[in-house]
Amino acid sequence: MAEASRKVVLGLGNLLNRDEGLGVQALKVLDAQLGPHPEVELLDGGVLGLNLLMIVEECSHLLILDAVNAGEPVGTIVELAKEQIPLYTGIKLSEHQITFQEVLGLANMRGKLPQYLHLVGIQPEDLSIGLELSPTVTASLPQMIERARARLLDWHIIKAQEE
Amino acid sequence: MANRIVIDPITRIEGHLRIEAALDGSNKITQAYSSGTMVRGIEIILRGRDPREAWAFAQRACGVCTTVHSFASIRSVEDALGIKIPKAANLIRNLMIAQQYVHDHVMHFYHLHALDWVDVVSCLKANPAQTSAIQQKISSWPNSSPAYFAGIKQRVQSIVDSGQLSIFANAYWGHPAYKLPPEVNLLAVAHYLEALDWQKDAVKIHTIFGGKNPHPNFVVGGVPMPIDLNSDTALNANRLSIISDSIDKMVDFVDQVYLPDLLAIAPYYLEYGSLGEGLGNFLTWGEFPGEDNSDTSKFLVPRAVILNKDLKNIQQPDPRDFQRMQEFVAHSWYNYGGGDQAGLHPWQGETAFNYTGPKPPYDYLNVDQKYSWLKSPRWAETPMEVGPLARVLAMYAGGHAQTKELVDTILKTLNVPLTAVFSTLGRTAARAVETKVFADAMRTYYNDLIAEIKAGDTSTFNGDKWEPSTWPSRAQGFGFMEAPRGALGHWIVISNGKIENYQMVVPTTWNGSPRDHKGQAGAYEASLVGTTLAKPEWPLEILRTIHSFDPCMACAIHMVDAKGNDLGEVATGLSVCVS
Hints:
Order of helices and strands of chain A: EHEHEEHEH
Oligomer: heterodimer
Radius of gyration of chain A: 15 Å
Strand content of chain B: 5-15%
Shape of chain B: globular
Helix content of chain A: 25-40%
Number of helices of chain A: 4
């Protein structure tokens, strides 16, 4: 079996429900900021379910960008370390119900959770139909990107910018 | 678990399929109501956009249905503008669509539906040597030794011991309606686990043809990846060989695992051959074009309407028929400008929200009024079932030899009559039958593609009408797609280069629709009537039938007993999709 060695930043969420898609929007901003970055893959996971299992299990380092409902004031940056991310599984009534936490739960059950796993997110404000992020989340986005970069630095995946 | 804090990362797309069922004194369902509790707004987002980009938004509507919405979208634009795609592009699309079926159906069976029939906990009582004997009897699948199954049993034991059993999704272990012996349960659990590894090979086709992972690319006029056997970036010899290998692995799993498992499990649940029938009316838009999307006579799956289970009088539905293809909103939370009793063809479709339901949380919906975010699509004002059973019946009635042979063999093996196909069991078997047909078709499409390349025909994109300056000022199109869970249609109206109207009629809307202007029930609603629940607080029997349709939404079930007492909401899920 191939060694899990991919280093991935995975943006999650539904772009059609405003702040729900903030993880994917953040990914685009991070991509533009990093410039060429052969050392790390930036992947748009959208709302794909089980199809992401393969990617997760091939990672040594996985940084997730996502909208997080942590019961915090809207716009709050939320960070979850590996042991804090709930590997949620529950009663499932549609194949479409597979949440990303369930993908992580399956990977864990199979003993293939990435060694380094971290989540950076924002408490969303508006999940209604639409493509634009809410003003509050838009204002928090730079800070979220900063935290994501700090994590990649900490993992020695990217180097500090010189300027 | 002491470290775990209670935080709930937003579950993907929220919304439910809600089933309300009324029971009589013997816990038999007398009436059922199906409600979609999430509104879909994709139509509003698409208005005014470039039609060539519609697929990129449509595919975001759902994580499982990305491919089907993308194809339906680009086909609608091609239909509107009269674009014919190159032959090689059609073969590549057929391969992608067939892959989607095989992948989706296998995962549906093992990851969702099998657990309605398989009691995971029971497999801890299994004798692995006996499971091994069963496996070796039903197929030549290599993972069949007693030691292999003993290992699986141990894995399940460790999962149970660690408190992670909920990974298996269903919480009804020990329900009296589970009938399989422990050894067969162990067999199915082993294949549940194997399917997770298998799908990694299965997705390679999409990764290659889409040119991008995890969201593939699509293009109006063909497929985005060029063919050049000597190029590193195109569809080359190396990539073709990966695809061929992936097809082999898919076919093997279907032949050696999925079909044999179906036949090993079905004999214990034959009563479902006469439960869950539903409407007896079926509709397909058809799939797998021969060369040209508009020549339905060369489709592998015919475009068909079947009424009252009559397989001798097949009609071909015309999606452009303003009088017959209509959506109604009499019981849906929408307003029509011309009144809520009217029916509208999707090209004239309106998406004006009008929520009149109770403020959540609530006990019941008022089913005499509007009670769903799903509209009621109807063919000639008649409710229709869509999905694998509709397709298999269309192929069977159309004389497709392999389908006929597979269906007849299964009926004979289970010793049930043809009428048993109109049931929960029939729907589940039909899914396996078409998986086999489409898996084998992949090999044919692949060989045809290779022959096409050898003949030098490597064009994959027709750009003649790419520029909006070549378009008429106004055009309307229909994009068909037989999604794994049923007939999907996208209807587009293009005006001055932009989208003026866009309506999707998705399979779960056909099947899960509420009552219509005539009070006629939708497919889910009709299929549940007459089923008796062994334990109403654990409505496993409802799940079996609803899951046999492969709903695109998580489902909450709400029940009322004979005296009108609320039995409570017994199951909830959190996400939804729109296909």
